[in-house]
């Protein structure tokens, strides 16, 4: 991967270790940003995604990679952070209806708050997040209305914003892409598919279950793109 040039603008890139966040990071780097990757150990059952995030951050030569430990499992309320079964083998119609139990309460709100804090310290005006409003399993904090509202709030919430030193922009380059579109874009950008991890309920050895919503959406995307998932 290309490394940032001296004087490149800084960007905080949320990096889960999944395909979408890796593609978002690759886009930020392609567009000339010095990327500061931010991942979260929040008590998720699929914690091995952090290993994927570390591999991706190293492959892209990010300026720095931080893992914030925030423990959302203290609240539970989600199949990813509590004692709730991860749904398996759901149809496309089922995934398109309602908000699934894999939704983690306020997760993106919290993640963006950490990104905002780091961006202010870095004197950065740019945050990248790989949210998607099409193949997104119904999460409310992946909608464009949420991102727009958060960006307005962020520019009222920081010292740098109030003093007029920065005008924060939350970049969502994948927002209106299908999963197949994301797969095609990722290939164009040279994203190492084999380093990414998407499964919500992996086996102890890290293998994807192949049946959760995340696995099914990923499979659908690769099949529709006509690309092999390595």
Explained architecture:
By secondary structure, this protein is of the alpha/beta class. The protein has a single domain, classed as HUPs (Rossmann fold, 3-Layer(aba) Sandwich), CATH 3.40.50. Helices cover 37% and strands 11% of the residues. The chain is built from eight helices and five strands; from the N terminus they run βαβαβααβααβαα. Strands 3-2-1-4-5 form a five-stranded parallel sheet, with helices on both faces. Helix 7 packs across helix 8 (213-225).
What is the percent of helical residues? 25-40%
User: Given the structure, what is the number of helices?
Assistant: 8
- CATH level-1 class: Alpha Beta
- Tell me the span between the first and last alpha carbons: 19 Å
* Percentage of residues in DSSP E strands: 5-15%
Main features:
about 35% helix; about 10% strand; 8 helices; Rossmann fold; about 230 residues; globular; 5-stranded parallel sheet
List the helices and strands and how they pair.
Blueprint: E1 10-14, H1 19-30, E2 34-41, H2 49-60, E3 64-69, H3 92-95, H4 107-122, E4 126-128, H5 144-157, H6 159-162, E5 169-171, H7 179-189, H8 213-225
Parallel strand pairs: 1-2, 1-4, 2-3, 4-5
Helix pairs in contact: 1-7, 7-8
